[in-house]
Amino acid sequence: MKLLLCRECGDVVKLLTDERWCRCGRAHGYYRTDVEVVIMGTAEVLLLDNGALHTAMVQRHYEAPRCPTLPVSMLELALPAHPRVRRI
Ligand SMILES: [Zn+2]
Predict the structure, then answer these.
(1) pLDDT of residue 64
(2) How far apart are CA 13 and CA 43, in angstroms?
(3) Which of 8, 29, 76, 81 could form a disulfide with 39 if both were Cys (CB 3.0 to 4.6 A apart)?
(4) Where are the domains of the chain?
């Protein structure tokens, strides 16, 4: 899953095939294909590993229900030259 992060307002929005905007309107983007996203303005992309998220949620539910956080390792900030992120 790819999330749009706005460097200006800090809003985080799930990217979809329809164009999505952050709260301040300076960052926006959308899925161009099943795996490639296009971002514009002050947007950055957060990559969330779906499999790792599911595993962490299951583990948290069954093994550590009081744990308030999920592992950071499943979330990455895409570099500007990431092959599945196109900035226009
Ligand atoms: Zn914003």
Answers:
(1) 64
(2) 10
(3) 29
(4) 2-87
